[in-house]
């Protein structure tokens, strides 16, 4: 393989990228099981990463998310119980490692200048909105620009790098979130085993964001831990459990039906598919695993006649109110009573630039 060199020239300007929160619209969690999904990025929440040229390579702790100074022992314990042990520094370090190793393995020569990385995020923790992968995805974009290698690393491969960084840290997840954040906008994803085995990634098809109806987001101030949801089902699937295997296939098929419904503007079909997606998930995982608060967020929407399902693995719910503003008003009142937050979804378009689009057309 011929080495590919980065273009010389001293980089002096800071580079900053945002990566947006993700909603799994249909088909999740079948992405981990050779299924299909439709996902979208939303402008309500995002993570940003800033890269600045510097003498030494420096990963800057966030003043809140990587807090190491406390007013008391009680403050420290309370903080750990609410926020956990991990901030974003480990995510930035992991993507630096995975990026460097990928470039080395693929004969992409990197210049030797150093940089500092810092991050910020307003994505609520443990809401199933892909907060961790947003930080990693934004950092990857900074590295691609700093080393001027965007044209060497195909867009289709980049979600694998993001997921690779998270796997370094023991985070169990699928490619769906990373694809959505790398591509931006509305994306249909096919993770069929044939594609994954032959290509090492799925087939990702961007869709027109205007095909989506108005959507809303429900989330809780103190959500559950989304990291515990996959465990038992994953093992049962690996063990050949026929119920889990057939159910995951059924969930993946919802994305195919959903793509047709979106293209036909068949909103009544979308209501049916969204509700069925959650119902199948509930049968597979069980109420104890999903959590009472997560289930109540789904149920509060259904009580006013809206369609609802998890955005990810719990902590937030995507809602479609087919009857329009009057139905949204009813939902607002019900959410207020229960202490849930309700926001209209702001859909963001694709974030790919011309250089990215050129890599999509490469064999």
From TrEMBL:
Signal peptide: none annotated. Keywords: ATP-binding, Carbohydrate metabolism, Cobalt, Kinase, Magnesium, Manganese, Metal-binding, Nucleotide-binding, Transferase. It comes from the Eukaryota. InterPro entries: GHMP_kinase_C_dom (IPR013750), GHMP_kinase_C_sf (IPR036554), GHMP_kinase_N_dom (IPR006204), Glucuronokinase-like (IPR053034), Ribosomal_Su5_D2-typ_SF (IPR020568). It catalyses: D-glucuronate + ATP = 1-phospho-alpha-D-glucuronate + ADP + H(+). GO terms for molecular function: ATP binding; glucuronokinase activity; metal ion binding. Residues 101-185 form the GHMP kinase N-terminal domain. Its EC number is 2.7.1.43. The keyword Phosphoprotein does not apply. Residues 260-329 form the GHMP kinase C-terminal domain. Its cofactor is Co(2+); Mn(2+); Mg(2+). The keyword Lipid biosynthesis does not apply. Belongs to the GHMP kinase family. Sugar-1-kinase with a strict substrate specificity for D-glucuronic acid and ATP. Involved in the biosynthesis of UDP-glucuronic acid (UDP-GlcA), providing nucleotide sugars for cell-wall polymers. May be also involved in a salvage pathway for glucuronic acid. This is glucuronokinase.
């Amino acid at each position: 393989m011929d080495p590919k060199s980065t273009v010389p020239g001293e980089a002096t300007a800071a580079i900053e990228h945002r990566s947006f929160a993700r909603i799994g619209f249909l088909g999740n969690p079948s992405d981990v099981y050779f299924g299909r999904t439709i996902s979208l990025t939303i402008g309500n929440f995002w993570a940003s990463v800033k890269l600045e040229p510097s003498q030494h390579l420096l990963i800057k702790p966030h003043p809140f998310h990587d807090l190491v100074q406390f007013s008391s022992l009680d403050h420290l314990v309370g903080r750990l119980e609410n926020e956990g042990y991990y901030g974003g520094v480990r995510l930035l370090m992991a993507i630096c490692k995975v990026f460097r190793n990928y470039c080395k393995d693929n004969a992409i020569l990197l210049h030797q200048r150093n940089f500092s990385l810092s991050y910020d995020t307003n994505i609520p923790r443990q809401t199933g909105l892909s907060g961790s992968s947003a930080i990693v995805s934004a950092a990857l974009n900074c590295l691609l620009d700093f080393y001027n290698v965007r044209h060497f690393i195909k867009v289709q491969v980049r979600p694998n790098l993001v997921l690779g960084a998270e796997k370094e840290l023991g985070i169990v997840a699928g490619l769906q979130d990373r694809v959505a954040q790398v591509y931006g906008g509305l994306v249909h994803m096919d993770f069929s085993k044939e594609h994954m085995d032959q290509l090492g990634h799925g087939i990702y098809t961007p869709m027109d964001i205007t095909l989506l109806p108005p959507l809303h987001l429900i989330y809780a101030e103190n959500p559950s831990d989304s990291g515990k949801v996959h465990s038992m089902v994953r093992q049962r699937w690996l063990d050949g459990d026929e119920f889990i295997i057939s159910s995951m296939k059924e969930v993946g098929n919802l994305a195919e039906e959903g793509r047709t419904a979106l293209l036909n503007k068949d909103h009544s079909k979308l209501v049916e598919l969204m509700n069925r997606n959650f119902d199948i998930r509930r049968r597979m995982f069980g109420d104890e695993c999903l959590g009472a608060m997560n289930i109540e967020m789904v149920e509060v929407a259904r009580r006013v006649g809206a369609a609802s399902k998890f955005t990810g693995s719990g902590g937030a719910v995507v809602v479609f109110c087919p009857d329009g503003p009057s139905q949204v008003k009813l939902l607002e009142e019900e959410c207020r009573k229960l202490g849930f937050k309700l926001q209209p979804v702001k859909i963001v378009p694709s974030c790919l630039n011309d250089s990215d689009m050129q890599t999509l057309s490469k064999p």
